[in-house]
Amino acid sequence: MRLTWAQPEDLLAHELVQSAAEGRDVAAVRERWVAAGGDPVPAVSGAGPHPAPPALRSLARTLLDELAALPAAPAPEEPDDWDALAASLPAPPDLPMTGADRTLGAWTGRAAGCLLGKPVEKIPREGIEEILRATGRWPLDRYFTAAGLPADVAARWPWNRRSAATSLEENIAGMPEDDDLNYPILALGLLERHGRNFRTGDVAEAWLDNLPAGRVFTAERAAYRNLLDARPVPETATHHNPFREWIGALIRADVLGWISPGDVRGAARLAWTDARLSHTRNGVYGAMWAAALAAAAMVCDTADEVLDAAEAVVPPHSRLARAVRFGRELAAEADVRAGLDRLHEAYGHLHWVHVLNNAAVIAYALARGGGEFGPSVSIAVTAGWDTDSAAATVGGVVGALRGVDGIGRRWTAPLDGRIATSLPGGEQRIADLAARTAALAARREGS
C-alpha cells in the first residue's frame, strides 16, 4: 500500500523544508540523509514512488527526532500561545453582531466553490488553463467537463483520480464527499454538543469518533497518528508533522465564523482552539483568518469590508499577514493573469497545500472578484495550488454576501441541495445544515 503523508522517509523530506523555514540549521541532517541514499525532494502527492528499505526508514525516524531537537530561530512576531497572540492583534472592528440569516448562502457557496476545484486539485496552473482551452471553457465560468478533451491533454494533466468521477459537469449529482465539507459538518456537531466553550481535546475526540483515518490528510493525518500514540496537545501538532503550517486548519474554520456573526475575535479564538490540535504559527493564523472572514461575511456588505475586518485577527508582522496583504494589493493589477503571475513568483516555491500561497490566492480572489460569485471562485481555481480548498473558502464568503440567488443556478442546481459525507449519518441537506448553523448563532445572540 502506498500510504501518503505518513511514511517517515516522505515526512523527512518535508521536515527539512519546514525546519529550515523555522530557522533551524538543517544542512548536516540533509547531508546524512542524502549520503544514506535518501531523497531530500518532498513528494508532491504525499508519498514517493518507492517505499524506503527498513534501514533507511529507521534513519528517517531518527533524523526527524534530531531535527525537532534543533533550536529554532526566535519568532516573537509569530506566537502560538493565545494570550501572546491576542496581545499582538489590533483592536477588533466594530461590526454589528446580528443581521439577516446568511447561512444558506454560505454553505451553498462553500460547496459550489469546492466542487469547482475538485477535479483539478494538484494540477498546476498551466495544466488547468490547457484543459479549459482544449474544452472551450477558457476563461473558467462553469464546472469542468471532459467532453471534447483531447487524449494527449488528458494524459498530460490527469484529473484528480478520486474526484473526476463525481465533479465534472456531466456526472455531478449533488455535492460529493470532500474533506473541505466533512470538517464543517463535524464542527457543527462539535458545537451542538459542547457549545462555544469546547476544548482542543473535544476536537480530538470528535475526530476519533467520526473521521475515518483515510479521509484525513497532511497535518491532520499526522495529528491523528499522534492522538493514537497518546501524545498530548500541542505535541499532536508538532511530532513528526512537517505539515504544521499548511492549509488544513484553515479549511476547518468556516462554521466557527458563521456562528459568530460580526465577532471576528471570538471566531478567531474558536479557530485557535481547533487549529492547535494539528498546526502551529501560520497554520493556526490561517484558521483564525478564515473564521474571521466567515464571521465578517455574515454582516458586511462587500468583500473588501470582509477582508478589512478579518485582517484584525492576524498577527500583523507574520508571514500570513504579508501573504494576505500581498494578495489584496495584486487586485489592482491590469488583469488576472498578471496578478497570478506575481503570486506564483512570490510563492511558487511552496508546496501546493501550504497555507501562505493559498491564503494569498483567497485574498486575491476575494478582492479581485468584486463580490461576484463566478469570477471569485474561478480565480481561486485557475490560480492552481489547493484549488478546491481555496475556492471553498472564497465561495463561502461570497455565498454569504450574495445569497443563494446571487450565486446563480449555474452553480447551485447541480448541487441539488445535498452534500455527501464520510461522517456518520451520511448525506446531508444543505438547508438542514444552514438551519442548524443559524440556530447556534441565535443561541449565542440570546445568551
UniProtKB/TrEMBL annotation:
InterPro entries: Ribosyl_crysJ1 (IPR005502), Ribosyl_crysJ1_sf (IPR036705). Its cofactor is Mg(2+). One of its GO terms (molecular function) is metal ion binding. Keywords: Magnesium, Metal-binding. Binds 2 magnesium ions per subunit. Mg(2+) binds at D386, D388, S389. Pfam families: ADP_ribosyl_GH. The keyword Transcription does not apply. This is Uncharacterized protein. It comes from Prauserella muralis.
